[in-house]
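FAQ

Q: What does a record look like?
A: Structure on top, sequence underneath. For example:
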């Protein structure tokens, strides 16, 4: 015979199994809550980093600017945090309620009655726990619905296209190697300035921001590694002008200056004699310029034109001498000549200053340097075709306007029209 009544034995086992399942739910719930909490901390840390980037990036009304994209990302991340927080609260409520003793009655000394009490208590506790959990999940549902409504406006295929375009363009820049080695010509057959540098120069030339002292502000070792990551998103509102100047300075360093070693003594000699006859200096320097490769001539012409724009700006305090101090040595002195000219530094600076002052005599066509239509310069890579043809119709750039605090929204800007208007 059984030691216990079959009914009592079945009821006991059923009740114990039910309690074990309940305890298992408590354990697993607590584990999930802990993991969600850990995820929340990382997302909040990410949010802090994004906010810091926003504070340091150039404020912009452009819907294609880096700052605007950070705002969109920040808003999205905030929405995901709300969903996770609601989910965490719901599971935490479930675990806590399952642990609670909802009845304060004393358990009977009679075995059958006590078993019945425990049986009903576990079921009522579980029912209440899941009821509260479902109530909390309504917040999760609300946040997820809001999130889905936000992203239902997105055209995922277009987002993917733009993302791939941006990635490919940035990779193209990252693979750029401006150095010449083994007599290999890395420039295009028509010997033009590389598109990456040309884009930087045009951006700098037409930037509406103050450009005084930009070359002096951009230490290459700090600026270029940061800028090269964002160069694919470059427009007049994405980066500080001194960052863009850092890219140009780095390029000058990598190609080993625009001047060949054999020409350095010639420019020094001509500059020393310039105080006697400046017209003779112009003639000698023109002859030297004719001996350097065409792409370096183009680069020198663009740099002198850019310097001219800076010095001629009515609000600028930057003189030809200031600019010569900032970039003269980078432009005119190859690495292997640094020791040779250490006592002639002032003469090199003077030479570059004279080049700025007589740029129109050295390059009669210098006024044509920045006349190329901007959409041609910027359409070298896929993402700029998207920008200038105004093909971006997704939330990321137009419909999704992040909350800026006072119910202000960022207006959509056709940057193509803006850029064309300045030429």
């Amino acid at each position: 015979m059984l030691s216990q009544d079959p009914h009592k034995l079945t009821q006991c086992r059923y009740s114990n199994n039910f309690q074990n399942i309940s305890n298992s739910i408590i354990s697993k719930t607590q584990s999930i809550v802990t993991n969600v909490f850990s995820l929340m901390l990382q997302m909040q840390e990410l949010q802090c980093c994004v906010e810091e980037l926003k504070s340091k990036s150039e404020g912009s009304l452009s819907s294609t600017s880096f700052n605007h994209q950070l705002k969109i990302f920040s808003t999205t991340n905030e929405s995901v945090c709300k969903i996770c927080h609601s989910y965490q609260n719901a599971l935490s409520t479930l675990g806590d309620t399952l642990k609670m003793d909802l009845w304060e009655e004393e358990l009977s000394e009679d075995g059958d009655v006590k078993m019945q009490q425990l049986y009903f208590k576990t079921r009522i506790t579980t029912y209440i726990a899941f009821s509260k959990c479902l109530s909390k999940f309504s917040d999760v549902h609300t946040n997820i619905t809001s999130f889905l409504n936000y992203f239902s406006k997105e055209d995922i295929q277009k987002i993917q296209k733009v993302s791939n375009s941006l990635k490919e363009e940035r990779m193209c820049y990252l693979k750029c190697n401006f150095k010449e080695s083994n007599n290999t010509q890395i420039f295009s057959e028509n010997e033009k300035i590389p598109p990456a540098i040309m884009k930087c120069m045009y951006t700098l030339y037409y930037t509406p921001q103050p450009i005084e002292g930009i070359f002096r502000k951009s230490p290459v070792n700090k600026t270029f590694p940061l800028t090269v990551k964002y160069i694919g998103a470059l427009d007049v509102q994405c980066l500080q002008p001194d960052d863009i100047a850092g890219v140009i300075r780095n390029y000058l360093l990598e190609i080993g200056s625009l001047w060949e070693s054999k020409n350095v003594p010639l420019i020094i000699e001509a500059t020393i004699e310039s105080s006697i006859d400046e017209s003779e200096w112009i003639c000698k320097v023109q002859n030297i310029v004719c001996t350097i490769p065409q792409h370096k001539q183009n680069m020198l012409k663009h740099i002198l034109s850019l310097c001219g724009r800076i010095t001629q700006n009515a609000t600028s305090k930057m003189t030809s001498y200031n600019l010569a101090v900032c970039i003269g040595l980078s432009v005119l002195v190859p690495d292997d000549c640094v020791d040779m000219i250490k006592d002639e530094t002032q003469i090199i600076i003077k030479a570059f200053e004279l080049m700025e002052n007589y740029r129109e005599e050295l390059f009669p066509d210098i006024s044509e340097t920045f006349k190329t239509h901007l959409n041609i310069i910027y359409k070298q890579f896929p993402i700029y075709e998207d920008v200038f043809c105004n093909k971006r119709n997704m939330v990321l750039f137009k419909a999704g306007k992040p909350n800026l605090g006072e119910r202000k929204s960022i207006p959509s800007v056709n940057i193509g029209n803006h850029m064309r208007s300045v030429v």
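Q: Is there anything notable about this one?
A: Confidence is low (pLDDT under 50) at residues 176-190, 382-423.
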